[in-house]
Specification:
With 298 residues, this protein is an alpha/beta fold. Helices cover 55% and strands 13% of the residues. Helix 4 links the parallel strand 5 and strand 6.
Length: 298
């Protein structure tokens, strides 16, 4: 028999996990959001549950409480759980879905006898539909009882549970941000550069996306060294200097990102990082000297 789970914070992540679990036969208990209307919408999306526009004792009817609120309100949510639950939290399992925070944020709940942990799906949630979760990594950590529940949830979702030490959660989440949000910023910047070069947005996306996908496929299939491409991989520093010069017409962040990413690439991809970084010092140092000289003459 599948257990009952309450969902506190039914946004993109909470709704999606709730819907998947409900389809797998889990019973959905209280579904809590910041407004009654929002809770009703979440229940309709999930296909089950009892909507609540504020945190109430109804939450305690479920043995498992999934907290999918923004990180910034987790301490406040913990205080509210203590206020309404107190000793009734004993024996409950409370899991939050934060990628950056660990189970220690729920320490006051643990002190009341609940088992606490975190379960973070390594997946982007757009809010439109439910993304595929099969094969996705879920970072988990926490108390033994919470870990057992977290592993069960992940395996029923056909994901892969990976235990991350609580003190390593910020590093883990920084890696996620680098591979997702920061990559998106790079792609949007590249798209705007293509538009400035004369392409329409759709043309720029059609040009860049296959290139990026191919590099990522090569990375997956062949590894980082074999997938590395571009002027830095060939040691073509004149081209890198030309790129830097072209980017001076853009906001300063473009040039700064170009330099920072080149240096990062040298550090993690080059066969001889020290030599490559020294060469980049010459490229970017010369460009900065020319810029200062031009500024003085102006």
């Amino acid at each position: 028999m599948k257990p009952q789970i309450a969902i506190l914070g039914a946004g993109r992540v909470g709704r999606s996990l709730g819907r998947r679990l409900r389809l797998l036969g889990w019973k959905i208990g209280a579904v809590v959001t910041r407004s009654e209307a929002g809770a009703r919408r979440a229940v309709r999306f999930i296909g089950g549950g009892i909507p609540h526009g504020k945190l109430s004792r109804q939450l305690l009817a479920s043995p498992i409480i999934l907290v999918a609120t923004p990180d910034s309100v987790l301490p406040q949510v913990t205080d509210e759980l203590l206020r309404i639950g107190g000793e009734e939290l004993r024996g409950k399992v409370v899991l939050h879905t934060s990628g950056a925070l660990d189970s220690r944020v729920l320490a006051p709940v643990r002190a009341c006898g609940a088992a606490v942990g975190s379960l973070h799906p390594l997946q982007s949630f757009s809010g439109v539909g439910v993304p595929p979760l099969q094969g996705r990594v879920f970072a988990i950590e926490g108390d033994a009882a919470a870990l057992r529940v977290a592993r069960r949830i992940v395996r029923e979702l056909e994901g892969t549970p990976v235990r991350i030490p609580c003190e390593k959660k910020p590093l883990y989440h920084a890696a996620c941000a680098l591979a997702a949000g920061h990559l998106l910023a790079v792609m949007e910047a590249a798209t705007r550069m293509m538009i400035a070069a004369g392409m329409k947005r759709r043309e720029a996306q059609r040009a860049l996306l296959p290139l990026t996908r191919q590099v990522l496929e090569n990375f997956e299939r062949l590894g980082a060294s074999a997938a590395w491409t571009g002027p830095l991989s060939r040691g073509d520093y004149a081209v890198i200097a030309a790129h830097a010069a072209a980017l001076r017409k853009f906001p300063a962040q473009y040039g700064a990102a170009h330099e920072a990413l080149a240096r990062l690439g040298a550090l993690v991809l080059a066969r001889h990082p020290g030599k490559t970084l020294a060469a980049l010092d010459g490229v970017f140092g010369a460009g900065k000297r020319r810029k200062k000289s031009t500024t003085r003459k102006g």
